[in-house]
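User: Can you recover a sequence for this backbone? Please restate the input before giving your answer.

Assistant: Of course. Working from this structure:
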């Protein structure tokens, strides 16, 4: 992790970012730290986990304004992916047929500003299951 900027350098960079319309708090925050926001939003879970076979999970979003979920990968369905106020959100994950696990971060935007994130993980196909399938095919 990079050491934090101090003194004059931080003040100059912070002023420059403010002039450009960026929040210096967001820039200096860690990757999965809190996202500063001017809007009130609550997500019932900051992470969901799925087995390799896929499945369905739910979470609730409550915001004081309109919201939308961004960065949804092609193997995931999120319904609804936008709304206003409170809603139950269903996340449906397709099966992962690869030997690599998946990890994605969905961002909840409120009034087009990042306000919260949700980490979605999915197991990889077990190596034994792949080998058993290969044995059946070759016999």
């Amino acid at each position: 992790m990079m050491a934090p900027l101090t003194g004059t350098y931080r003040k100059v960079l912070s002023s420059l970012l403010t002039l450009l319309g960026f929040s210096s708090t967001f820039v200096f925050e860690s990757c999965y730290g809190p996202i500063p926001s001017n809007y009130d939003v609550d997500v019932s879970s900051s992470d969901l986990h799925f087995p390799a076979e896929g499945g369905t999970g739910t979470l609730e979003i409550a915001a004081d304004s309109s919201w939308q979920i961004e960065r949804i990968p092609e193997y995931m369905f999120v319904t609804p992916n936008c709304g206003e106020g409170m809603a139950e959100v269903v996340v449906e994950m397709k099966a992962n047929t690869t030997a690599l696990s998946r990890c994605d971060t969905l961002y909840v935007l409120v009034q087009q500003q990042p306000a919260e994130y949700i980490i979605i993980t999915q197991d990889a196909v077990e190596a034994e299951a792949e080998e058993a399938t290969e044995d059946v095919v070759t016999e």
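That completes the design. The first helix runs from residue 7 to 20.
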